[in-house]
Design the sequence.
């Protein structure tokens, strides 16, 4: 029996609960959700709220509704978009960590190389300022957030908005679990020292050096985030 949800922001809460139930496998791909009347009663909401939640779930690529037939769960792993990453990462970090970090490394290095090629002086000044912000951060959380902004600036510096959206998608998946991935930023000065070669390569306008610096930086920070020693592989468990 599902638990009724509280009445504040009913549609938001209902959408979140339905997303969680779909991703967890309670309602697997290809299955039809229970009839609206039963589902609304089970969650303790009105059918109007349920319909609004269904619209959002359809937009996210999780379900499809056919009049007179019902609402069916779609194969979101095949058809879903990057906006689902935060929910998927939170629901099963161990299953997604390797894939997220692999894309982080490959896309991050490409973005950094393109940033070196196309960055304006404004971009370069912003990167240098963010490096100073990382170095002077009062704690790991502040250093980590400043470093996230570095990646946004790098994506913007490519001049390609698709890379901006890709970077944002990865950051949106990373930020909900960032509190568990702060090891590279515990010492903000050391964090800045690791980041400096990347920023310097971009500011010098050398794409090859920027790609190499990004590859090294992303690999090292991944190792630290996941608590690995050199050459070691762990299960990806969040506390």
Sequence:
């Amino acid at each position: 029996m599902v638990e009724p949800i509280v009445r504040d922001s009913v549609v938001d809460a209902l959408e979140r609960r339905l997303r969680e139930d779909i991703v967890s496998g309670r309602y697997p791909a290809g299955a039809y959700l229970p009839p609206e009347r039963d589902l609304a009663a089970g969650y303790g909401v009105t059918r109007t709220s349920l319909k609004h939640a269904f619209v959002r779930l359809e937009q996210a690529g999780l379900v499809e509704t056919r009049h007179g037939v019902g609402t069916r769960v779609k194969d979101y792993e095949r058809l879903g978009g990057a906006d689902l990453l935060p929910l998927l990462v939170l629901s099963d970090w161990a299953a997604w960590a390797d894939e997220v970090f692999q894309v982080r490394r490959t896309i991050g290095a490409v973005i950094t190389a393109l940033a070196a090629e196309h960055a304006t002086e404004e971009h370069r000044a912003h990167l240098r300022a963010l490096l100073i912000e990382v170095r002077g951060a009062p704690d790991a959380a502040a250093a980590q957030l400043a470093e996230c902004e570095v990646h946004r600036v790098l994506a913007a510096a490519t001049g390609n908005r698709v890379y901006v959206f890709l970077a944002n998608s990865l950051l949106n998946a990373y930020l909900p679990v960032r509190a568990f991935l702060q090891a590279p930023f515990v010492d903000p000065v050391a964090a800045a020292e690791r980041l400096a070669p990347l920023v310097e390569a971009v500011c010098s306008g050398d794409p090859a050096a920027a790609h190499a610096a990004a590859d090294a930086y992303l690999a090292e920070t991944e190792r630290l985030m996941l608590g690995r020693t050199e050459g070691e592989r762990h299960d990806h468990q969040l506390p």
Remarks:
- Residues 140 and 182 are 6 Å apart (CA to CA).
- The radius of gyration is 21 Å.
- The chain has two domains: 10-79, 82-225.
